Structure formats: structure tokens, C-alpha cells
Amino acid sequence: MTTIGYAAALEQFHPTELLHYCQLAEQHGFKGVMAADHFQPWVPQQGHNAYVYSWMGALGTATTHTFGPGVTCPSFRYHPSVIAQAAATLAAMFPGRFWLGLGSGEALNEHVTGGIWPDSLIRFEMMIEATEIIQQLLSGKKKRYRGQYFQMESVQLYTLPATPPPIYIGAVGPQTVHWAGKVCDGLITPGANHAKLRGILENFAAGAREAGKDPATMPKLLQVHLSWAETHAEAVQNALTEWPNGGMNFPKADIRSPEDFAAMAKLVREENFAGRVLISTDLAEHRDHLQGFADLGFDEIHIHNVGRNQEAFIKAFGEHVIPYIR
Fold it and tell me: How far is residue 67's CA from residue 87's CA, in Å, rounded to a whole number?
């Protein structure tokens, strides 16, 4: 059965305010939280960049369902050994509830350390090495690592969970999706048209079967952005003001600053969100939209309403949408 989770936009809300929304979401039938790991917001208007690993410690004590970062890049801001330590701590504190989401990164968040920003193939290769390090350290054994991109002295984690947290890979590209199925425990991908998502799921399943795993047992998480409000005008304005990046139909991994995104946002119009962010006041339309993703085979759908009207959204979807998703 597909569950509906809450996508926590730490780039958009004060962390204390967002913690309240997560608690409210749980009270209204949302199950689980996918928390954004951002060093900068997409555009300055969003206004926040709280540190997700500090915040998830508070989230674990304030809620009871599963949670994880969607997603962390363990290759630039962080050395992968540091992410392994953070993941082990959260999994030890909240057994069976924390999952680790990993991705290859975006310049907006990762280029803050400066230096050369590599192309997508190198970022993928870096993520492969970083994931190997994290998996090795979460095993609890003392490890040394010498790769092309990362080195690690002989080191061991001492605070460990009884069971290592599952590692889910955030991916869209075919090479990364296939590798995720082979090497990791689950998949995270963003909402898209059904044909594209079917291809992603099939590629992920092929990678899993190649490694002798059953893809049916591996979690498949979807993140969906939408704009719901009491009036269509408000829903449109929320998308244009708060989430213009959702209307940008081009790769964004190489764009480095919120100001650059804000400049591009001046060109975004309502029609640019079509097929990317559903803008609608009709709760039945949102319900059918989410049901379509559930029918594709996603186990968890984490939804983010792009406006500031979070309490109204949570209550409306809790009453009129979530109970009807099969």
C-alpha cells in the first residue's frame, strides 16, 4: 500500500515552524518526512537554509514515523565518513525509522566550498566511492579507503544502530538509477510524466535483479511538488513567488546561486509548471494525480505544497486526499 509523506522544505521555512508542520502532518495522516538538505534556498524569497542533520534529531523526537534527507550529497560539503557518522547516530537514536538518501549534488548547495565543479559523470563516480565508504563504515568494521576521489585513514564508527539504516539513491538518469538498484536499498526520484517514471522503475528493477535482489521488496520513494490554495489565483501566485524553480524545465545542477535562479524566475509563467507542478484548487484532481503515481508502484509519495499555507494544506489533504489513496 502506498503511503503519503510530508516533504519538509527547509529552504522555505524556519526550522521550528517546519517542525510544527511535520507534527501537524502526522496528526492528519501523513506518514513519514522527506527533509531537504540545502545549504542555500533556490531563490532568496524562500528565505531559509537550516542544517538538516541538526533538524532531523529534533524531528525524530517530535514525530513517530520514518524520515530521512531527500537527498544528501556526500561528496563536496561533506566527506562521506562524516555522513556515515551522522547516519549511524540518527539510526541508533531512532531504530527502524531513519533512512539515508544520497545524491550526486547540485552546485547551488555543494559549490559553497569552491574549487572546480565537475561534470555529471565525475559527480556520479564520486558518489559511487562515497557510498562505498558509507556502507563500509556502517558495517561497524575498521576501514581504510584509497579511491580516485576519496581517501580515508583507518577508521571505525563506535556508535552504531543494531541494523544499518537503508540507503536510498536520488536518481533520474539511467546509469545512476541502474546502479542504485544494484548497490543500494531503494530509490528516490522526483515527480514526472508516467512514461518517464515507468522507465525509471523498470531500470531500477533491472539493476536490482542483476544483483540478485527482488525489486518488489525495495522501497521506491517519489517527491511531488504541487500548489494548492483556496483560489486559483492564490495557487498560481504561490508557485510563481515561492517555487519558480519548479517551472524551470532544464537541468539545474550547475546553477550556483539563489540570485541566478531569481533572475531566471522572471521568465517563468503559469504554463511553465504544466507537467511539473500541479496547480489546482480541486482536491479531487490532486487525489487523482497522486493515485496515478501510486498505481505506478511507488511505496511512498512525499508531497510538498509550495505555498506558505501549510496548515490549511495539511488539514485539507488529511481529510479529503490521503484517506482515498489506494
Answer: 11
pLDDT number for residue 1: 86
Catalytic residue among 26, 106, 110, 300: 106
Note if 106 is an active site residue. yes
Determine if the peptide bond prior to 71 is cis (ω within 30°): yes
* Residue type present at position 138: L
Based on the residue annotation, tell me whether 320 is a catalytic residue of this protein: no
Q: Give the active site residue among 11, 20, 26, 38.
A: 38
Domain range annotation of the chain: 3-324
Residue 54 burial by Cβ neighbours in a 10 Å radius (0-12, 13-18, 19+): exposed
Query: Which of 315 and 114 is assigned the larger pLDDT?
Result: 315
pLDDT tens-digit readout, 251-298: 999 999 999 999 999 999 999 999 999 999 999 999 999 999 999 999
pTM for this model (two decimals)? 0.97
CA distance 174 to 254: 19
Distance between CA atoms of residues 19 and 30, nearest Å: 14
Q: If one looks up domain 3-324 in CATH, what number appears?
A: 3.20.20.30
**pLDDT grade for 189, boundaries at 50, 70 and 90:** very high
